[in-house]
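Vomeronasal type-2 receptor 26-like, Microcaecilia unicolor. Tokens?
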Amino acid sequence: MEISNSFHKINIIQTPPQAKCSESCPPGFRKLTRKSEPICCFDCIPCPQGEISNQSADMDNCVKCREDHWPSHKRDTCIPKLIIFLSYEEALGIALTTSCIFFSLINAIILGIFIHYRDTPIVKANNRDISYILLISLMVCFLCSLIFIGRPEPVTCILRQTTFGMIFSISLSSILAKTITVVIAFHATKPGSKLRKWMGSRISYTIILSCSLFQFTLCLIWLFSAPPFPYHNMQSEIGAILIECNEGSMIAFYCVLGFLGFLASISFITAFLSRNLPDSFNEAKYITFSMLVFCSVWITFIPTYLSTRGKYMVAVEIFAIQASSAGLLGCIFMSKCRIMLLRPDMNSRKSITKNN
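Tokens:
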């Protein structure tokens, strides 16, 4: 608009009025209108957990990310969640893998020693064939813990608990067979004993085969009813996806563990009651101590396992497998290896009858 008179000429430029009391909200925030104030007056509040705002214009609501995604630090874009599982590359996985390989090598060395000295009295006196079965099963126990490390897959989830259950049942039934053989060998020497017909390896193989077959049946029922499978747990940790093995049927899982506990208990009780047999049959003393170590590890394992989550739950189970297997290996076989390697003078029928 232009106004003029004889003295002055004034130019007036009109602009529309502006009414704005709040600045625009940056990405990662949303508008919250103030009560009893004009609509242009609002507060900028951060998007809630799991939501973003990425538009330049002010947004009244944030947008929720997909279930497998998570907001960035600025909450302006969705990024994939971190994948978590116990891997071979991390420190914990490397430590467990190293210990597994170490114990497996020790086990293989002990097995080699027993094979090399297979015709000596100390090996023959301790049920040579059952010792071989026990040593091989313990070595597989160490190696089977490797299945628990790495990204869970359908095959590995099935193999984890079933392999563990089967191999441990062979180990524990071998120990039970050793213990019962000690008892039978002692009582069969009494005049008129009816246990003479059970002398020999037949009873030992029957125990191992029947116990292993029962555990195998439990595992088959488990696999055909509700087998383990990989599960993507998106609620365990914020901003992460925990890939773990769902056990499928927890009833079947606890039945497998329960049978192992039953074998361990029977072996411990039998060995404990036989510990005071004459010196020539005192392998029960070593078995008693080994089963005490085994049971202590697994009794401690149960509350620890139930109180942990994620990859640390897997690590606890691996530790229990290795610790209990190492306990059996050390308590039953190390003293015999010491005699064979360092005290060959004691590896004779006379010394074994007197001191073993």
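The mean pLDDT is 82.
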